[in-house]
Amino acid sequence: MSIKSQQANMKTIHALVSQDLGYIYGERESGPNGAKKQFLSKSAAFLRALGSDLGLKEFKVNTNPSGIACSGDVTLMGLWSDSNGMYFKIGQPLQPFDAFLYRTVKSMKDYNGGRNQWLPCDLFATGEYERLINILLELREQLRFAEVERRAA
């Protein structure tokens, strides 16, 4: 995807998570084409393109629709090398200022990973895709630096 379409996706995702995605209409949850469905599909497309743009050599995107009264979430997990990677999760924020979680991982089955870090909502509201890329690429550099230090010790 182009940078402009990724910026537009960020703004759309922000608009979607800014509303109540867990609302219920009678017996149906958000309808078959409701905001929750749109959030999950738009976020998955966004994360697939993000994985490619970050240069991850291996990655997967998982969608968890969750149940009623929940937004669900979409995750990207990928590796830059055999033991250096990242985990990124988009879901409806619990706090109004922290929305999207990211952390380091050492394998595609590392579900604990490094320390949780949070991106502010306004990063997505303004569509700052290049800034997002730079923040996540800093993780790669931190991992490389840690690996060099470990080998030197």
Question: Care to describe what's here?
Answer:
The protein has 153 residues and is of the alpha+beta class. It has one domain. The chain has 4 helices and 5 strands; from the N terminus they run ααβββββαα. The chain has a 5-stranded antiparallel beta sheet. The longest helix has 24 residues, at 129-152. It is globular. The model has no long low-confidence stretch (mean pLDDT 85).
Query: How many structural domains?
Result: 1
Q: Biggest sheet: strands side by side, in what order?
A: 1-2-3-4-5
Span from first to last CA?
42 Å
Count of alpha/pi helices: 4
Percent in strands: 15-25%
Mean pLDDT, rounded to whole units?
85
> Given the helix and strand composition, which structural class is it?
alpha+beta
Number of strands: 5
> What string, H for helix and E for strand, traces the elements in order?
HHEEEEEHH
Shape: globular
- Residue runs with pLDDT of under 50 for 5 or more positions: none
The residue fraction in helices comes out at 40-55%
* Oligomeric state of this protein: single chain
Largest sheet properties: 5 strands, antiparallel
Cα gyration radius (Å): 16 Å
